[in-house]
Predict the structure.
Amino acid sequence: MKKIELRVYQIVGNEVCVSADDGHKVYESIKTFISEKKKIVLSFQNVTMLTSAFLNTAIGQLYGSFSEKDIKLCLSVSNLPELDLVLLKRVVENAKCYYSDPQKMEQTIKEVLD
Amino acid sequence: MKIPLPSIENNHKGYEELIALNKHLEAKLFDDIEINISYWFSANLCAFLGCILDKAARCNGVKVSVQNGKICNILQRNGFLAHFGYEKKTDYYNTTIPYLKLKPKEDRFFNEYVTKELLQKAEFPVVSDKLRRKITESICEIFINAQIHSETDYIYVCGQFFPEKKIINFTIVDRGLGFKKKINDRFSANLNGVQAIKWALENGHSTKQDAPGGIGLAILKEFIKLNRGKVQIISDNGFLQIDSQNETTHILNESFAGAAISMEFRTDDNNSYIISNEINCDEIF
């Protein structure tokens, strides 16, 4: 099946993709496709600035809605420079960790106080 | 009422002085206040002083007078004194990074400002594109953190470039909830100011509910260590400084409701920031 290309620049309407709100627009778009098991390529062509906050809401929170298997099957990315790929990998690992144990945050607070 | 400022530098003492001023001004109502700068004043801390004076100006008359000619020139060139009755001067040296008071939603404008002032400035020494990118990324992460977490009405920013020392100083200040209140409210905990800052700096630690987060500050901390720079975080009664060698903390004499983050980046950093283990696009998820 041919993959459908989703362009971040087109969804956000700007080359600067830094805010969590803009990330949420991308999340909503991706969600629609993964819900139907459609395969997509998320293109970051012409995006000049990314933050972890943007990627957390755009991609990280997908792990709260879908299984890792479905995300791996349906989603791929293109046109991401090396530094941003590293950031995205970190966001993904953090999201997997967070959704595997959402109560972990409370535990970390206890550890500071102990 | 004239209030003289002692020498204000990017160190624990400088922040104690500014927070003491904040406390002093919080008690003023319908007063005529003149802040007198006669000694050294680190230009990036215009973000902190601006935040303090802006609040005081809601119910007082506030002006600034600067007796030190060199400092006056810098604070006119970075636009800070234009808020207090001075004329704005053109920065022919291109070493100032302008003082701005921004609404939290102005993230795109902030990004344009950072790009113009840091990425595109011809006066900056020849540094790799990746280093420039890492510096701007760190600064943008901190601005967005304030936007998401602080519930502030304004964010204050200012910087200064020292070509000979090969250093960029940049400060971001908000008058929002602060680390301690935000974390303690979220987790019904009782962390002090320093504990709250330290917790927030750990990778993946976030007060967000039902969503992952908590990477921005951790990225800054790691980059600062590699870059041999420095970061200072002040929030509530907590002060924390991290550089490549040490981590220093202090419980401050007074509290500051909000957060100030000062970053010092070295532009003579020869790290390539090339990733040794190449990441394959197909192995991201």
Summary: The radius of gyration of chain B is 19 Å. Chain B touches chain A through 47 residues (CB under 8 Å). Chain B has one domain: 2-271.
